[in-house]
Amino acid sequence: MLFNSLEFLLFFPAVLLGARMLSGRRREAWLLAASYFFYMWWSVPLASLLAISSVVDFWVGRGLKREERQARRKLLLFVSVSVNLGMLVLFKYTHFLLEAGTDLLAVVGIVRDAPHLDIILPLGISFYTFQTMSYTIDVYRRRLEPTDSFLRFSLYVAFFPQLVAGPIVRASDLLPQFARGPIYSDQRNREGVFLIATGFIKKMVLADHLAPYVNAIYSAPDAHGGGALLLATYAFAFQIYLDFSGYTDIARGAARLLGFDIGINFAKPYFSQSITEFWRRWHISLSSWLRDYLYISLGGNRVGRFNTYRNLMLTMLLGGIWHGAAWTFVWWGVLHGALLMMERVVPMHRILPGEGWVSGVIRRVVTFHLVCVSWVLFRAESMGHALDVLTGIFVNPWDLEWTADAAVVAGLILFSLGMLMADVGDRVFRGVVGAPRPLRWAAALSAALLVIGFGVWSRAEFIYFQF
Questions:
Q1: CA 326 to CA 383: how far, in whole Å?
Q2: Is 323 a catalytic residue?
Q3: Given 209, 224, 283, 323, which residue is catalytic?
Q4: What digits encode the pLDDT tens for the residues 339-376?
Q5: pLDDT tens per residue, range 425-457
Q6: Region for 5 from its dihedrals, namely left if φ exceeds 0, alpha if ψ lies in -120 to 50, beta otherwise
Q7: Burial class (CB in 10 A: 0-12, 13-18, 19+), 271
Q8: Contact by Cβ (8 Å): 420, 253
């Protein structure tokens, strides 16, 4: 079920009404049933994977609580990681591994066609597998007391606002809220409504209007000049931010109305002054997961310079592969790993020194363009297309076909950039939430008219649904 659909506009008020009328275990059961219904709207059979993760990791958590022998505890953790990563590899990476194996055989002279298996990628599997693994790892490390309620744990795994595209919520954040019960207030209601409205505007009014131009240019990069390719790359940078942060806003707003809090996933990433800072601001729940459960587990930066570089590269490589089973994502991760390694050698503030606002702007512009180069790999349909885009941009960036569509896209980019530079989101958030009731109603009506009048109603999926 898509947030930007009529079905969700009917589904969510019914769920909210039921949740506010019920209490205790009945409310948890209601939210769990609603979460599974939300997922099964897309696929009934694949909802069984949610149940498998819930059963296995709840059982592992209970076992880790009782078991004191370290060898047995490691075995239990191995079961959890194997089941979750096994499902992820089976459903997401089988085709990629078969094609890579076929290409490797061709190198040694064995030419075969890669077998094709009719495997459907389960919606949100990358998110909920990482989320449930964080629970068992934290329990194994004795940083989290496992829950005794299978109902509550199942709700943690399947909680519908953030089920299919995050944020990746830690059990230590969400399980205590479920145990405590929801918190309702007029202030929280206003915040929830505002977040949802903001998310719809980002997605339907801005991101979905940028998408057709990006799709048209990137589908045939060799047919367009460097200027059009550059504009499309800028457009995609804002499209993916508005699309993904819009989903996060709706998820956070829905959770807030239900009485629970989900952490932020973005903190103005395009204002970063280095790639290192960018990863502290972009997709925060994933970057912090990779830091806490992979980078630090490998030794972090405490194991010498060479091993630190290795750990950075392996972490970003996994981050790239997490996003998709394609060489473009592999090289996207490698590029970010290389940039992070270079910043370890020579930090950005040494390359572009200075403490004034001009130096800060220059570092932000340079960082943004480095990120845009990486977005080419992320968005391109193949490595060949990515090279075509980059070649076109660097050879002749001024060759722009100035069409009506290009003018609209340029206007949307400037409008979005202006909103970010003026910090409009936070300012409006504080102003609307604390404003008198007539002004709040006027703001809500304006947002609704904006989405109805200018929103794209094509039921376009959110970009991160494919991950």
A1: 9
A2: yes
A3: 323
A4: 999 998 887 777 777 777 788 888 999 999 999 999 99
A5: 555 555 666 667 777 677 777 777 777 777 787
A6: beta
A7: middle
A8: no
- Contact by Cβ (8 Å): 412, 202: no
214 and 239 Cβ atoms separated by less than 8 Å: yes
Residue 251 · residue 167 · CB < 8 Å:
yes
296-342 pLDDT, tens digit each: 999 888 888 888 999 999 999 999 999 988 899 999 999 999 999 99
| Cα distance between residue 132 and residue 171, in whole Å | 8
User: Chain-centre distance of CA 342, in angstroms?
Assistant: 25
pTM of the model: 0.91
Tell me what pLDDT residue 113 has: 66
Please provide the average confidence, as pLDDT, over all residues in the chain. Answer: 88
Q: Distance between CA atoms of 334 and 342, rounded to whole angstroms?
A: 12
Return the percentage of the chain with pLDDT > 90, whole number. Answer: 57
* Beta-carbon contacts of residue 433 (< 8 Å; ≥ 6 apart): 187, 190, 191, 194, 440
Task: Tell me: pLDDT of 243 over 60.
Answer: yes
CA distances from 293 to 302, 311, 314 (A): 15, 12, 12
- Residue-range domain boundaries for the chain: 6-182, 187-274+347-466
